[in-house]
Amino acid sequence: MEILQSQKIFLSLLLLPFFFHFSSLSLSSAAAYTLPEQYFINCGSASTVYNLRNYTGDVNSGKFTLSSGDSSQIEDAANSSTDELYRSARIFRKPSSYELDVVQNGTYVVRFHFFPLSGLGNISDARFSVDASRFRVLSNFSITNATDLKNFPLIEEFLLTISVGKFEIRFVPTEINYFAFVNAIEVFLAPPDFIPDSAAAVAPKGDDGEYKGLLSSPLRVIHRINIGGSNVTPTNDTLLRYWIPDDDYLFNKVTARKSDPYNGRLDYRSPGATNFDAPDSVYSTAKEMNIDSRSQFNTFNVSWHFDVKTGKKHLLRVHFCDIVSNTTNEFLKFDLFIYNNFGTMIYPFDFVQQTAAPFYNDFVVDSDNSGFMNVSIGPRRDSRVQTAFLNGVEIMELITELGSSNGGSDHSKSLFVIIGSSVGGLVLVLVFLTLLFICLRRRKWKPVEAFDLPLGPFFGGSSYSRTTNRTINGSPLADLNLGLKVPFSEILYATKNFNAKLIIGEGGFGKVYKAKLRNGRKVAVKRSEQGHGQGLPEFQTEIMILSKIKHQHLVSLIGYCDEREEMILVYEFMEKGTLRDHLYTTEGEESSVGSSTSRSELPWDLRLKICIGAAKGIHYLHTGSNGAIIHRDIKSTNILLDENYVAKVADFGLSRTGLLEETHVSTAVKGSFGYLDPEYFRCLQLTQKSDVYSFGVVLLEVLCARAVIDQSLPREEVSLAEWGMTWQRKGELGEIVDRFLAGRINPNSLRKFGETVEKCLQDNGADRPNMVDVLWDLEYCLQLQHTVVPREAYEDSATDVSLDFPMNVIQRLPSHNVPIDETCSFSDISQVNANEAFSQLRIDEAR
């Protein structure tokens, strides 16, 4: 669509005298479009009126032909609880078709209405396919998943390019004893240029050039979302469409707010959208970032999470109408993101130089293996107005499967397929067994690390899976996200049979290898080993959590392998390693325990940016999904850095999920020595504030560049948390900073940083801030590092700086600390202090 629009603009410049003529002609052609009368079909009955449209009955109609080997109609006229259109249906026991006369080339809207009437019989026997315009638009279709009547009518909508002539819609029962049915059919010409033939192509990895040939494939509507608005029914839509609200798809509801509805007249103008692209009720409502636009720290995104088929192409249409700017949209720019690796600038003024003027952007998106498509909006630093908005989203799947070319049903061919597959499979098995016998006679069996028989081509993956055959607490484990499964043969190839030279680390789960997949992508492969204290539960937790969440400051899970008794996780490769690697070296067994030596040369502002990135990742875990996630193992070795020193939180094997309303999760104590929240240890009640405590310890590591527990030091210095707080309370935290940073930290930045650490390390969780408050404080520290600000009374640590600070460009985000009962039921350990808690923690449970 963007290409077509740019061509129009270029043409208007060449023919300047005729510019207004072409503009008015474009608008008049859209305005001249009216919803056609044909074809609206009431199946299995006579004519009726529905949504102010006349639906022609398919009984003895002269407007189209019903060709059927075995069809019948049923009516449930007595059922007054349903609309008249859904009181009848046409049933097909054999392949049958409707033939419609098409008199104009173009893009057509094709809809099928399904409603389970009582006269249909066993609805589970309704399994069928539908062919249209040479394509199989519905394959092995069933409505049994929508068991509640409130989910009906079920409407399947398609956009097809149809040429003049006969247009056939064919219903094909899947098996002999199955049947097909339909309650109503709509086929009508869409407005001109409703679907472009090309659009920007987007792959999960990012920009993929341009996709051409959209008009050659049918499009199946998957989602039609009214962002910030309510339900839109066909009576209120220009093309009789349904739109639903976005609330169930919004990833973090607190990040967005509804814009005030626009009550004026929308300015539809070329090259923008028309009211047929989306109705007024979509363009006059929106959601925007839930922020104060005066703040310069608004860097979060608003994200929506839409379920789609894996490995398919989808047309994504995003609708915009600037109803958030007061007078002009010249100063508002923001970013649109698709997945994590594609972003494009949205500048309404560059598109339509007017507020309340609708427009849209089209993208052809390749879905990844997650089963979801992420769409996000976020602010740009070069925009004078710091916000972003979105009005509507449509997602349509590109259909490539061809329909049947003969008159037989699917089941007439299935027997030959089954016999052929069985015979072919038997031959392959015999060939494989012969080859295997020859191999065994010629050589000795090799261990796994040296196994070079190409398993993938023979098996396509092992039939034995740890995640489906093992149990936790006696309950069978459900199969995890199968789209992320990686064959063991691919793991062997990527790690060169687990070459010891590729080992880049070792943690609580096992060894970590630097590897390269066959497609050239660098990854980190983490392989479980016995005796490391972690096993199947942690393996399953990591997969379940990382397959559902994505964020620029969380390490992405590429895949997993659970074949041959293996538990292997594959992550994106982080070039710069762990944060601890850049702070100090240790000689102890644990990564954070033992004598340490500073090795850092990271400047203070870069350390702050790393902390800010990690804080964003943790804040997203706490608030970015319907079930809040507590990491439970925040430490410097679980904060990784990419080639640009961007921080990403990793290792979710000990994480716990829970509802946002829950104040705590009762659980056995697990974590890492030196980072453990003392309140969690005393009360066995895990909260999000436990992560805040651990992160406070990390902040001290970043400042002091030493291990969190160093047994080689005097007793009062062994625990970094206790030692650091001793100096902070004396107001002399600068005495223990990393020698590399001496004289390089702005005193105001250091003072605010110390106050932030002190709040994080409060003994009682209720006294600690939320991660969003920690994030704000760290952003403030970074500003202070580059700002000369004299010390004033309001900068005292006992005062909330946000209440009196005169700089109006900085606004404190609200923090609500809910007081809780600090008395634990575990009287035998309720008086244990932090030192005693650390000494009693079993080291073999630490990671």
Structural class: alpha+beta
Strand content: 25-35%
Mean pLDDT: 77
How far apart, in Å, are the first and last alpha carbons?
Answer: 53 Å
The CATH superfamily of the largest domain is Transferase(Phosphotransferase) domain 1
Give the overall shape. Answer: globular
- The Cα radius of gyration reads 31 Å
Number of helices: 17
Biggest sheet details: 13 strands, mixed
- CATH fold title of the largest domain: Transferase(Phosphotransferase), domain 1
How many independent structural domains?
4
CATH class division of the largest domain: Mainly Alpha
Return residue spans where pLDDT drops below 50 for at least 5 consecutive residues.
Answer: 1-29, 293-297, 405-419, 440-479, 659-663, 789-847
The helix content, as a percent range, equals 10-25%
Query: Which CATH architecture of the largest domain?
Result: Orthogonal Bundle
- Say how many strands there are: 44
What this model shows, in words?
By secondary structure, the protein is α+β, with helices and mostly antiparallel strands. The chain is built from 17 helices and 44 strands. Strands 1, 2, 3, 8, 11, 14, 15, 16, 17, 18, 22, 25 and 28 form a 13-stranded mixed beta sheet that branches. The protein has a five-stranded antiparallel beta sheet with strand order 4-7-12-9-10, with no helix packed on it. Helix 10 packs antiparallel against helix 12, helix 12 packs antiparallel against helix 14 and helix 14 packs antiparallel against helix 15.
